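Protocol step 4 of 6.
Sequence for Ras-related protein Rab-35 (Chloebia gouldiae) entered exactly as in the expression construct, tag removed. Do not edit the line below.
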Amino acid sequence: MARDYDHLFKLLIIGDSGVGKSSLLLRFADNTFSGSYITTIGVDFKIRTVEINGEKVKLQIWDTAGQERFRTITSTYSHQQMLAWGFAGYVAEHSHLTEDSQHQSVTEKLRLRPSGSSPQPPSQEQNATALMMCQEWDRYYRGTHGVIVVYDVTSAESFVNVKRWLHEINQNCDDVCRILVGNKNDDPDRKVVETEDAYKFAGQMEIQLFETSAKENINVEEMFNCITELVLRAKKENLAKQQQQQQNDVVKLTKNSKRKKRCC
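Step 5 output, structure tokens:
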């Protein structure tokens, strides 16, 4: 059966709780908005096909929730400590853990060390938590082509935390396209993150910025089209590089073959 699209991309929406990730997704995918705040549980995604420069692009857009709980772990144990304690071996040994055990609350399962004390090697229970964390991260980021980092223009804290989200992208994705989104940009009296400051930060991070409002449908379509164009361009550039490399390899093989014939 023939495909009804030319490209299939996975986009991931991340950011602090309450910044409007789900609202942006619903506005773009279904053109709907709900003023009632409902916390997203786990992970959800929607599908929409768009046309970019005459090509049909099918987008699988993932709306994530609960990432904040991972910060408790990463702020308690460094990545180096996790490796030193051999979490990888434990993961291999305990790959039979059930879905129920994987989705228990991290904060309930992890015994936090007192502030200022030296971290102790993790218990078996904490190792299981690390396994769950790795599986959750892998589920969120596996196969991602583009990431939308969202903050709330009425929340300075959510803007400050953007750096953490960008760092998480770097930790979990290779050469992924990124875009920064300041949502809830529909009430000037409540806005605390100034546009000028946001653009300055975006320039420093070498990332494009869009200020949006899912409520008023401001810049939502433009933002999603932009990240799609970035991903599509990156794909074509990578394909061009691969083709050039293949051509170079053929030339090298041809030259080597001619040299061997001369020697004979």
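Step 6, annotate. The radius of gyration is 23 Å.
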